[in-house]
Amino acid sequence: MQAPLSHRTTDGPRKIHPAIRKVWLFSNTITFLIIAVITSVMEFGFLKAVDAPWHFPIFMPILWIGIGIASASLVKLQWERWSYEVTDREVILSWGVWNQTRRFVPRDRIQHVDITSGPLARKFGLSHVHLYVAGAHGAVGAIPGLTHAEAEELREMLVETQAEHV
Amino acid sequence: MFDRPHRLHPAAIVINFGHYFIQAMKGMWAPLLAVLVSGGHSGRQFEALMIGGAAALIGAFALVGPVLHYFSTTFYIEGDALVISSGFVWRKRRTIPLARIQNVNVERTIWHRLLGAASVKVETAAGRRSEGDLAALSLEDANKLQAVLLQRRGIEPEATDEAKPPPIYALTTKQVFLAGMLGNRAAYILAGVFSIFQVDRSDVVFKPVIDYIGSLSPVAAFVAGSLVFFGLIVVGWLVSIAMSATRFYRFRIDKHERGLLLTHGLITQFRTVVPVGRIQSVRIVEPILYRLFGYCEMYADTAGTFDKRDVGAANKVCPILLEGGVSQIGKHLIPEFEFESLWWKQVSPKTVPRHAWRYFVLLSIVFSWPLGHWLHWYALWFMIPLAAYCWMLGVVSYRYVGYSFTNDILVSRYGVFRKQAVMIPFDRIQHYTIRSTWFQRRLGLATVTVTSAASGGHAIHIMDLDAASADTLRLTIGESIRRHLGSRRGGL
User: Fold this and answer.
1) CA angle A15-A17-A23, nearest 5°?
2) Which helix (H) or strand (E) holds B369?
């Protein structure tokens, strides 16, 4: 028995929405600020415990704000590297700055598709599409930064071609 | 048959009690030990009272829980589904569609056998544990339920014992002992001893020992330490032999309508059906001692899951097997099984320095503290032989690591001491990935990962392929998956 041929594809790789950079920038800033505050408090506690002449934390705020700035500078590159493509047989996801990854998910293996959108992404009108296959704990791929219409289109495209078998 | 709600066998109360009690004790043994050891000291009565009270409370729970469980649990088959209804306060009704059942295991622990009962475990592809766990049924009911669940999936129940054909594979008692001797579990014993140090009041237990060692001369202390260490290894070895002997006693593989039937066990008897149609990947593992004697182990991973305590051995199709016999069993697991005649492709030789470096960093971290403590800066001299050793490991690894494929299967192999080959049929591949780290890209390398729906997560990882080969391989995989579309057996 031959699985039905699917017809709708993306006609080549597509980029994700540029507004995702702002979402990443915001969420990175918040994350690193929280880490900076927590580690600074720990540093303060440590300096006090060892009875250092200077109790005000310097090292941790500089370290984490530095890492935050470095990661912010990579957001553009991160966006440039993200692309997705739906061919007639596979979904191909490519991402990553340091570790570059290309993941191939055969279309008939997709069990279900989730569309999620967090508060930040919602503010910019963006959604994430998660792909699920059998046996994996969690999604095998999450495409960030799609407009609601794009996400909906992708979802339609993927669920319509599911084979009868798992 | 089973169309009306059925209750469990009353033995379930005893069996669940043991289970609840052991679970509770696992969490309590360390503090209890500490209290017992320090019992004579003054000022600890209150603490002892508290812990004693907690233990009594746990004991009471362990007693009430199973009784309530027994009276509230029923199971029946409704249409095309197994329904298990349980819970006294929070009622739960679990419905397992028969078509989703991956496996049905009948197990008998020593308690089951004393009470004439057996447990039935129903597995589906979801979750990490068996989805339907019936603690105790009469042996007759258990066998009938297993047969009914399998039959309803469109398969005849197995033949009775009288007309049993000769097994596909059986272990002699000698081989069972050999499996135990080759698989040393001393590491578990050591870990167990060290875990005692984690207990708050471990000094009470160890202080006399440490004081005694402190009173010895350094040479005597070293000798005593070494003796204790080797003693533990010997104990681990004996434990391992005993475990293997009880677990794999009278191990045999028979043909079954749904695949292969494994029967084994001295105290707890296992009857596991390996659902051949649902096998996702097959692994051939050769730990170093096994290899010296020309043996290996074989595993078959299905999308079905097993109880946590069984994870180590449940997917094990064969605990010990002569390397030459791999294909004989393999053909029963995957019809397209191919191993001895495969032609292996190597990865890039640039993997040698990368592997060597990784070993070097790891071993340096492990040895830096003891050697640094002992030899101070002179320990740096050890870097030279260590580097040579790591380079050698890198070369050994490079010469073995490889991948191969036929029209139907993809196989990879890796390992230095414990060698392992993973085989996934193309029609079982769920997704595949090419990844390259920054370091790999500088050398023009990439890693290919191929994943099936096997619950253990035993994917094929082919590390440090040169980028062009990685791309060729991924085209081959894509093409082979396409060719096998719609040919999948058994649904998953």
Assistant:
1) 130
2) helix B351-375
Provide the Cα torsion B360, B365, B368, B370; round to 10°: -120
User: Among A99, A140, A166, whose Cβ lies nearest the Cβ of B492?
Assistant: A166
Cβ count near B438 (within 10 Å)? 11
CB B246 within 8 A of CB B266: yes
B454 touches chain A (CB under 8 A): yes
What tokens does B34 get? 């500490």
- What is the three-state SS of B62-130? HHHHHHHHHHHCEEEEECCEEEEEECCCCCEEEEEEHHHCCEEEEEECHHHHHCCEEEEEEECCCCCCC
Q: What is the CA radius of gyration of chain A?
A: 21
Can you list the alpha helix ranges (DSSP code H) found in B256-325? 288-292, 311-314
CA A157 to chain centre: 21
3-state secondary structure of B417: coil
Q: pTM score > 0.95 for this model?
A: no
**Distance (Å, whole) CA B144 – CA B137:** 10
As for the ipTM of the complex, it is 0.84
pLDDT in tens, B126-174: 555 667 788 889 888 888 888 888 776 554 444 445 556 788 888 888 8
| pLDDT tens by residue, B93-129 | 788 878 777 778 888 888 888 888 898 888 776 555 6
Amino acid type, B192: G
- In B, which residues are within 8 Å of A103 by CB distance? 431-433
Strands B132-138 and B169-170, by their bridges, are unpaired
Q: Give the helix, strand, coil percentages of chain A, each rounded to 5.
A: 45, 25, 30
Q: Does the distance separating the beta carbons of B485 and A3 come in below 8 Å? A: yes
